[in-house]
Amino acid sequence: xxxxxxxxxxxxxxxxxxxxxxxxxxxxxxxxxxxxxxxxxxxxxxxxxxxxxxxxxxxxxxxxxxxxxxxxxxxxxxxxxxxxxxxxxxxxxxxxxxxxxxxxxxxxxxxxxxxxxxxxxxxxxxxxxxxxxxxxxxxxxxxxxxxxxxxxxxxxxxxxxxxxxxxxxxxxxxxxxxxxxxxxxxxxxxxxxxxxxxxxxxxxxxxxxxxxxxxxxxxxxxxxxxxxxxxxxxxxxxxxxxxxxxxxxxxxxxxxxxxxxxxxxxxxxxxxxxxxxxxxxxxxxxxxxxxxxxxxxxxxxxxxxxxxxxxxxxxxxxxxxxxxxxxxxxxxxxxxxxxxxxxxxxxxxxxxxxxxxxxxxxxxxxxxxxxxxxxxxxxxxxxxxxxxxxxxxxxxxxxxxxxxxxxxxxxxxxxxxxxxxxxxx
Length: 425
Prior knowledge:
The structure is a single chain. This protein starts with a helix and ends with a helix. The protein is α+β, with helices and mostly antiparallel strands and 425 residues long. The strands form 3 sheets. Strands 1, 2, 3, 4, 7, 10, 11, 12 and 13 form a 9-stranded mixed β-sheet that branches. Strands 5-6 form a two-stranded antiparallel sheet. Strands 8-9 form a two-stranded antiparallel ribbon. It has 13 helices and 13 strands. The protein folds into 2 domains: 54-94 and 115-150 and 396-425, Alpha-Beta Plaits; 152-285 and 331-394, Pseudouridine synthase (2-Layer Sandwich). It has helices spanning 2-10, 18-51, 73-90, 103-108, 146-150, 186-192, 217-221, 226-231, 252-257, 262-294, 315-331, 369-379, 410-423; strands at 61-67, 120-122, 130-138, 153-161, 163-165, 174-177, 198-202, 211-212, 215-216, 237-247, 356-363, 384-394, 397-398. The longest helix has 34 residues, at 18-51. Residues 1-52, 90-114, 289-341 are annotated as: Disordered.
């Protein structure tokens, strides 16, 4: 009875008896159909949701990582990209998830070079023998990197008076030497520092990525044409230095980051070069002895015949292949050290003595610390080379917050992105 009364209240004007029961049954059927329709819609939505591809990125933006010694900045970018690519693939994400609505355009340009699955870039190169803060852009964050190329930075650099290399750091060849013993105390260095603070003119180093007539300077320097390299006129550029502090005690953060020990580095390089020279001489002598024993003029695969052509079985191609291999060897610089064995300053040698000293520099974008060290030495009537470098700050990112190599995992990279995004809001 209560159910019948309830039906009459819900449906005004219905009579008792058969008519009312018919109305109630109609309403129940309608309700059932509605419920079924709703259930079907929800199920379809759930199915659609479950079949949506996972996102390519779990977070996008900027973060700071710690670049180890001996790694190039591009080494770091490639390594981080590899981690994120493997993570995306493990989650079932693919490149198609970035462009689901533009497949025609993809097909149209499919013959062009395939783009990277994951976009990663850096906001300012650190040389292999430098360590510290390297700002990376992930995904949409790559569009924000230009401001970090131009933004404020802070460095700790170690310097050594008395010699200058062509690269202005430890990796180069000695090109100048000069006495420095007229500089009796670090106060003499401090006295000339005000000349290098503010907006000043600076000549970038020859080994840099600056373009002259469409060619990068380091390409000219390494091209083998010494006359062309010497003829290059590098224009001065205006830079801004906000502050320089001179000292002889290295900060703990710089030592932990990794800073090259200049004197030990040069000693080991010299020993390696002497060993390599001796080995090459021994190999040449052995080859000459073997040739004398076998007789000169033996025809070997790949040599030219009497007509000056390679043998019919591909000797010419063999010669070209060997030539290409030799070119690669000549153009690629051997990496003598890795992050584990590179000579670096440890906790037992934190205090420097002349001819070594250190400078802490706060500057704007485009400043070359190597050139700054060179110019400070010229002002002191001597020469100098930057032996070590640590970037301690780039924009809002500081060394203490940079993600170290042991923490380079997809989870921690994405977490660092989220934290940085939150801080920069």
